Amino acid sequence: MRLLQIIDSLEAGGAERMAVNFYNYLNGVKGIRAFLVATRKEGILKKELKIPSNYLYLGRKRAIDIKAILKLVRFAKEKSITHVHAHGSSYFIGSMLKLAIPKLVFIWHDHYGNSEFLNERRYSVLKLCSNNFDGIIAVNKKLADWNSKKLNCTNCTQINNFVQLAENADENVKLEGNQKVKLICVANFRPQKNHLFLLNVIAKLSDKDLSLHLFGKHFNDEYGNNILELIEKMTNVFYYGSKPINREILNQASIGILVSKSEGLPLVLLEYAEAQLAVICTDVGECKAVIEDTGIIINSGNEDELLAAINSYAEDSTKLNSSALKFHELVKRKFGAEKIIKQTIEFYKRCS
């Protein structure tokens, strides 16, 4: 089996990290050789590729970029690709590849983060392209059900995300501040992630011995600018930009937090668990199914609940440490890489 993972960029997003995770892990599986193509942009995740020689960057400029499509087709033929695993929005160029080489087994992976607002999802092009899908992987049940009902491919399954957390990075990051309790939030600056809500709550805890540390991409838009303006007024909030998240960074914190308005199955929760952090998260997407009773779940946008959650951990180190350990053990059991890879390979075979 010769597998090609396709992703539009190698920036630090959930779908991007999963494409890299699959690529790296599958290259260690007997009988499989894995390849990776980034179509539009490279990014910080390129440094994490374990076998750079099996990677190709297309430099795609537009939706229908003939030069990029031909480059992809040549690569697939040269490497004798048998299966294509396209992540997120890369389904379009993946469909072009399938049309050029019909014998390919083509699987699309749906990482759609706004699963709380599926009624607003635009999918006319996706539905057309789904005629070329041999199978669909969805990160949660809600997406799996939506795909089965809305798209022209009924061979759909739910497979959980998994993590391969790097031990360190080329650029070491030391969390700033000398506060006793450090909260970390890893989320790109998108309205869906609700940073402004989080910052408003942290402002009400300014008298507490705690700090908040934000990692994520700023898209140079009004939303991101508003976040930075708030941070400048706060002495216990620090922003580090977009960085590859590794164990060394996470181990400096004690609480991982995510207050999104909507999610699929956020990879960052699994990273928090891998680093053995206590967790606070909103009840959206599959978050509650991931955390179960090992962390604190709050309703989206509820300031009182978030205040109480942060205080309960900050004021009780025994509870914090116990929750962190239970969350770590739960995720290791349910979202272990070996288990998820086995399920994925079995699905590849069923689609063949």
UniProtKB/TrEMBL annotation:
Domain Glycosyltransferase subfamily 4-like N-terminal: 13-165
Known EC number: 2.4.-.-
One of the record's GO molecular function terms: glycosyltransferase activity
Assigned keywords, A-Z: Glycosyltransferase, Transferase
Highest taxon of the lineage: Bacteria
Protein's UniProt keywords contain Kinase: no
Entry annotated with the keyword Transferase: yes
Annotated InterPro entries: Glyco_trans_4-like_N (IPR028098)
PANTHER family (UniProt xref): GLYCOSYLTRANSFERASE (PTHR12526:SF630)
Protein name: Glycosyltransferase family 4 protein
Lineage: Bacteria, Pseudomonadati, Bacteroidota, Flavobacteriia, Flavobacteriales
